[in-house]
Request: fold
Amino acid sequence: MTEHLLRIDNLEVRYGDLIGVSDVSLQVPAGSVVALLGSNGGGKTTVLNAIAGLIPVHSGSIRFNGEEIGGQSAFAIVRKGLALSPEGWRLFVQQSVENNLLLGATPLRDKARTAALLERVYEVFPKLKERRSQRAGTMSGGERQMLAVGRALMSDPKLLMLDEPSLGLAPAVVESMYETFGRLHREGLTILLAEQSIELALEVSDFATVLQVGKSVLSGTAAALAQDPQVQKAYLGA
Reply:
């Protein structure tokens, strides 16, 4: 095991002639929660999608567990132990809750583990078990967020990436979701969190990296960044 479960150096991602991110570097130590912070359009989702293999890397390095994964397929990356719960959930809305979860287990090499992982997700999110036969498209926003995270957990990841998990949800739902993330972390899961709520993200994270217009401009412990005058002025309303 390397010191950093995930390490990104000088990442650049382009959409044709447009630059999505131009120079992003960050590290995610094993067993930590790391926040990826910044304003809308700063490049957070682009970074997570590049790590997950959903969009190509133009230049730079993405190393997971010591292995270069930039340029590998999304399916291969999930199999290595890295899963993304995307912004907007991207569920199969006409399919049942359970079918959506089972699709998350597709990359598993050992299919015999599927049943145990499904029961584990139902134990983490009891409401999903209650709604296992319900169509995903009829669920509330909070329930859809649970389902998106549950689907990611079905691949049994070492590192879970969460893209804007609080977006559009009521405060009580956000609090419940973050309690669940805390539990998963205490049980050994490493988490990389892209979050619109900077104050919330810094509160639950060990480390953080701040993006501005596609570049990483600040990195450090979450506690130190919460006290940084630049962060306070730009994001915390101080």
Notes: Residues 171-186 form the longest helix (16 residues).
